[in-house]
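Running this now, will post back.
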Amino acid sequence: MLSGQQKEVKKIIFFLIAILIIASLYFVGKKYIEIQIFKPYGIKGESVLVEIKPGMKVRDLASFLQKKKIVRGRILFLLGYNMFFKGKTIKAGEYKFELPISLFDVLKKITKGEIYLHEITIPEGSTIDDIGKILEREGILKADDFVRASKNVELVSHFTDKANDLEGFLFPDTYFVPKGIPPEKILKIMVSRFKEKVGGYLDKVKEGFDFYSVLILASLIEKETGVDSEKPLVSSVFYNRLKRGMPLQCDPTVIYALKKEGKYQNILRKEDLSFPSPYNTYLHKGLPPGPICNPGIASIESAINPARTDYLYFVSNGDGTHTFSSDLNSHNRAVRNYIRKIRESKKENSIFYR
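Update: finished.
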């Protein structure tokens, strides 16, 4: 029989063996979990876009990401979070995961707040309303909220004290923005881009014009032609008419006025030219009270440096280009040629003299 001392030794040995087995199991299990945490998961080549709502609990998020097949399992997610990211806040927002991806990289992305940025392109000549609709269509924000926020003219107070909104100052470009960005923030970004791209032209404005007038003129040029080589010519027509005290008779100004009142019917009719609005350059001489769109650099450059011509008129050729004339008889011939082209091609349209 074993003595009491031997029994105690045996107990200690068994205890140590048990501790060793438990420790081994712990370290093996921990190592296995770590391997799973750092092992990429998901179908190669797939990308998943998800939105983490504000206030979402970690446990709920674990189940949510498992259902989206971004992580292997809910328990593994919770273990990974507690092992490597405990105490760190998971940032709400939209995230794009390129699969396969490890759980560690998932947790790293959502705790650092590497939210997905949508690529939004604002075309030259877009209005505030157009931009709002683009942003709403892309799921970024509500168009009405954007339009309301665009009344904050303090953002451009160093450019002018005449603006009623930010029309003309929202630079047309490509932007990368997150879903849910406040309209005030994206407006600041767009105005900052305008300052960056256009600020250098402030000192180039001709005598007798202020920068806001140049911006208004650039917006008219932008809406009249999309052909950059024609923009200095269009600019020269407007300058020549202004010098002679002639109304600009710019159709896009009437369209802009009609759209602001919700009365534009996708075609400009003869009776629309009498629409009462300070923007109607058929009724009022000089420039309209503000820009009618957000012009690009080519239009701004053309508004500052018009071509030297004696042109007073231009009319569409039906292919995006225009015919320019110095006298009314030549212009009327160009108009008749355009009408003939329309009839020959059996297209219906409306054409107005300038």
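Residues 317 and 338 are 6 Å apart (CA to CA). More later if anyone needs it.
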